[in-house]
Amino acid sequence: MTTEIDKAAFQEGYKVGMPTWFGVGAWGLVVGVAMIKAGLSVPQALGMTLIVFAGSAQLASLPLIAAHAPLWVIFTTALVVNLRFVIFSAILAPHFSHLSWRTKAVMGYLTGDISVALFMQKYPEFVETQGKLAYLKGLVYPNWSSWQIGSIIGILLGSQIPASWGLGFAGTLAILCVMLPAVVNKAAVLGVFVAGVAAVLAAGLPYKLGLLLAVLMGMSAAMVLEEWLEKLHAPEGEA
């Protein structure tokens, strides 16, 4: 019975995630090209995409790698960009706390933004039910595969495309495609504005530290405004 439930749950997750595969693959392709144009060799780029599996952190780290920034700057930047995964982990923890640490580690590596969003649409609150892990696997396995296929194609294409084509800007365009749909409220707008202004004003800092500073300032501004708006609109007596 459990096997049948898991099989049905996996197929459901597979079908729910199917419309996102092309976009994920295209995003991976752009990041693959960007890795090559940032100066990584094909083996280095393949190793990065297979081990890291974090497009936004990869794109944020690439200019730092190209600028030969210190390792602590590169790791700190990637850590800041991926802070949202701490929130994702907290959201998923109640559903999968019973799993072994190895299974949780593997699923943590495979789980991306879209998979978390689709899983939470199915399970917005914690419920005791079977098939949740199989449903998540149906989301993350194809998502990871789409990313890797697109990224590897991008790496191979990027190694053949002349630098004169100017595809080094592809990574920035990809970031914009991901960022703009996420700007859905006043806090997000303020965060983007503050981060943009900070990035321009701090462009002269060494080791690309302006990028890290812009991310921190943008996130802080958005969080402060969001908290203030929540208190402003909270029912009287709850603020």
From TrEMBL:
Membrane topology: Multi-pass membrane protein
A cellular-component GO term for this protein: plasma membrane
Alphabetized UniProt keyword annotations: Cell membrane, Membrane, Transmembrane, Transmembrane helix, Transport
GO BP term (any one): L-valine transmembrane transport
Keyword Transit peptide attached: no
Transmembrane segments: 20-38, 45-65, 71-93, 147-180, 187-205
Subcellular location: Cell membrane
PANTHER family in the record: INNER MEMBRANE PROTEIN YGAZ
Protein family per UniProt: Belongs to the AzlC family.
Protein's recorded name: Branched-chain amino acid ABC transporter permease
